[in-house]
Design a protein that fits this description.
The chain is mainly alpha-helical and about 210 residues long. Helices cover about 80% and strands about 0% of the residues. About 5% of the residues have low confidence.
Length: about 210
């Protein structure tokens, strides 16, 4: 497989599998959508996140990600935009927590909204940019073949693992939320997600 050893690929998959199950903005967004609107919205949100990751990988392959990280002004602007966006998501979750129609969890978010918000959440995460620049190239072996092809392969595996984890969580949590229609439970979950979004946003702003 492009000359990459089995050991390298297994090690790479093991590392990203651990990283994917660590809670972050993307996972919180998928879980929030699944909890509030149901499995379908959670899965579509996961697809939006995966689309954002695909763009990050493409940026690494094209060298654009390195340009962004090398520009303090541009990187800081993206960091603050991401922080503000996460706080807005948190405030929105608090405002909507008291107005949810819990007997119909699939209502309220169109597929387009879920996808686009997942995409933006991922794109405005500067840590994803840094991660892509610093992490993917470490597993490229110049002696194993075309470095660009290796980056594409590694990036595709990264997106595939993330998508698998997020879709599984989104579908599972969405189905669970559909069965647990108690309004108090749903409001508590929404408020917990809101707190997580705001906390993540503040942490991102503080660097």
């Amino acid at each position: 497989m492009l000359g990459l050893s089995v050991t390298t690929l297994v090690g790479y998959l093991a590392v990203i599998a651990v990283l994917m199950i660590t809670p972050g903005p993307d996972m919180m967004f998928v879980l929030t959508n699944a909890t509030r609107y149901g499995a379908r919205s959670g899965v579509i949100a996961a697809l939006g996140v995966a689309a954002g990751e695909t763009i990050h990988v493409a940026a690494v392959v094209c060298g654009l990600a390195a340009v962004i990280t090398a520009s303090p002004v541009l990187f800081t602007a993206i960091r603050w935009a991401g922080a503000v966006y996460l706080v807005i998501l948190g405030i929105r979750a608090v405002r909507l927590s008291g107005t949810a129609n819990h007997s119909h969890p699939e209502r309220g978010a169109t597929p387009r909204q879920a996808f686009l918000r997942g995409l933006v959440t991922n794109l405005l995460n500067p840590k994803m940019i840094m991660f892509s620049v610093a992490f993917l190239p470490q597993f490229v072996d110049p002696a194993a073949g075309d470095p660009t092809a290796q980056l594409i392969l590694l990036g595709a595996l990264f997106v595939a693992v993330q998508l698998t984890v997020d879709v599984t969580l989104g579908a599972g949590v969405g189905r669970l939320a559909h069965r647990m229609t108690d309004g108090l439970w749903s409001r508590r979950i929404n408020r917990l997600c809101a707190f997580a979004f705001v906390a993540l946003g503040v942490r991102l702003a503080l660097g």
